[in-house]
Amino acid sequence: MVDNAKANPIVSVVMGSDSDLSVMQEAIQMLSYFDIPYEIDIVSAHRTPDKLFQFAKNADKRGIRVIIAGAGGAAHLPGMIAAISALPVIGVPIRSSNSIDGWDSILSILQMPNGVPVATVALNAAKNAGILATQIIAVSDINLLNKVKEYKENLRDEVLIKGSSLSNDQNKHNS
Fold first, then answer.
1. What topology is assigned to 11-140 in CATH?
2. Which end of the chain, N or C, is less surrounded by CB atoms within 10 Å?
3. Domain boundaries along the sequence of the chain
4. Cα–Cα distance for residue pair 25/140, rounded to 1 Å
């Protein structure tokens, strides 16, 4: 299920099941926003261990620079990829149908042993994973870094406008 629309992907977005796609779509949207070539696939740590091993072992050889891995429940996918690959792995804990309020997923991804790091975003926060992957790549790409700076400035401006609007509304009600 590799997304062939993006030639020469540098970010791989993988998930343990197709039911995770609705969450992982936000990472894909952010990568698209920043024009980062990506691929998507389903790689289950438990149901396709041979595929997982080959994926993690060969991702760097295919030009991948960052891996975003989303998983729910026991959520072994990000950690197993990090155990095999030297690439940075960003884990997205997903609140799934068999999840214990998402805590099992969070802790499975977050509590990695020393030597096998996984950058972990908040529960269902695939958007942040897409932004973090972009920031990692932007370290060596000044144009991309400037796009990230612009994105963050836009976030700041949105908050300032909303805050100003609230202040103006409050002043009108107090008059």
1. Rossmann fold (3.40.50)
2. C
3. 11-140, 142-175
4. 25
